[in-house]
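Researcher: Go.
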Amino acid sequence: MKTGVYPCYDNQFKINTAASGADAVMESIADCDTFAVSFDNGVEEWHPFDTEGWVRRLMTAKGITISVTAKRNVGDAGNDAVAALAWANGRDAEKDFQWTFPDGSTALFKDAVINVKNVGSGDSTAVAPLEFDIMSNGKPTFTPAV
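Model: Structure:
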């Protein structure tokens, strides 16, 4: 297990590249270069008489979106699996996704919604991008590092 500060590249992402209904085959996604994480929290608020106007709160919902920018790498199983979802809709746009943290812990997002936003467009002299969001679809399974 690693401790202390770390470079962002110590985070690693994998996606299920197996065909629908087959046993999971988790593969790395080549050429990812940036990511941003956003927690989407649902918080209920109320103002009971006994708090003299002060708000009470309770977090009642959670979601997570991981926005990734990468380069399109044709022939890499993970990169190809993401790119292919640009044309998918409904349940066909779902894949298992795993985030491995620098300390070795993991978060497995079962049937995550893969929202492909760009697959290959840009300046004529730029390397073709692959941009996508991983959106939780239910509670992920978090496994602490050992």
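Model: The chain has one helix and eight strands.
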